[in-house]
Amino acid sequence: VRFQQEYAQKRKEFDGWLKQAKKDIAAETRKAKRDEIAREYQEIAKKRETALVQDYNEQLSKLENKINRIMRRTARAHGCKVILNKSSVVLGGTDITAEVVKKIKKSEKK
After folding, report:
1. Which H or E element spans position 21?
2. Three-state SS at 9
3. In angstroms, rounded to a whole number, what is the distance separating the alpha carbons of residues 57 and 30?
């Protein structure tokens, strides 16, 4: 999924920034200054981490909404009133899984 790749890239960039921050802190020889720099980096890191997680959760929520919308439309088109997990069905029903997956993939290409 595209947003997972974007998240992985952002996470990699954040980790690189964090690694550099640790080097910057270690390079400072004066303890008071080193502590000050460390506090500043901790504040920035916390804000960046929060933003990163928030963005990931927002993207995940959008994806879940899109999948649910596609499932509902596909189910209605087949006259289904209930959508169940495949493993919950013992006998009967209409399996719309392949069609839903196809529509999801098609919507990602847009």
Report:
1. helix 2-27
2. helix
3. 40
Tens of pLDDT, residues 29-41: 999 999 999 999 9
Contact in structure between 75 and 96 (CB atoms under 8 Å): yes
Burial class (CB in 10 A: 0-12, 13-18, 19+), 15: exposed
User: pLDDT tens-digit profile of 62-101?
Assistant: 999 999 999 999 999 999 999 998 888 888 889 999 999 9
Contacts of 55 (CB under 8 A, 6+ apart): 7, 10
Q: Are 104 and 71 in contact (CB under 8 A)?
A: no
